[in-house]
Amino acid sequence: VYGDMGADDNSVATNKYVNSLVDEVDFVYHLGDISYADNAFLTAKNVFGFYYEQVYNKFMNSMTNVMRQMAYMVLVGNHEAECHSPTCLLSKSKKDQLGNYLAFNSRFRTPSVESGGVLNMWYSYEYGTVHFTTLSTETDYPNAPSNVYFTKRVYGGFGDQLAWLEEDLKAADANRDNVPWIIVGMHRPMYTIRSCGPDGVP
């Protein structure tokens, strides 16, 4: 279980370590901020280029050894929302093709259909004696923080996450004789000792 891995120089040691564990772990649960592709333009040499897809591909390629041998379960973080480099902001087609979590939802296969969830945004699955409920802390609930990026585009609109969550947890609770543990995964913490916005969002 980890989050905020990325595909830049800061993640090399972590990436190498995770790849070394393929014979020791059964699956990975990546808690959002998958590749940090949206930050690819934040260096002087990349500021006016288009590196979003290149960085996402670099991350996916670096994890091929892991992903081909075990389930690689993901959940959405704030860095999956969009490409907001100058190149993307100036191109309507890039904004449309790489906004509203499209790259994130296109690159992974999660059991959302089987669990009544939506894309990779929220879903659930069982592994052994554990029921995993995966949520979006970015969209589709009151005061969701997803719409604070440079483009100020309205993101989300995937469905009623809270209604789905209630039904999912009821079903999981009813099955506790067989699957006693319930773990809820999300990118942002429910509570934090650090500062948060006036709406309580960490």
UniProtKB/TrEMBL annotation:
SUPFAM superfamilies membership: Metallo-dependent phosphatases
One of the Pfam families matching this protein, by short name: Metallophos
Listed transmembrane segments: none
InterPro entries, per database record: Calcineurin-like_PHP, Metallo-depent_PP-like
Domain Calcineurin-like phosphoesterase, residue spans: 2-197
GO molecular function: hydrolase activity
Record's protein name: Calcineurin-like phosphoesterase domain-containing protein
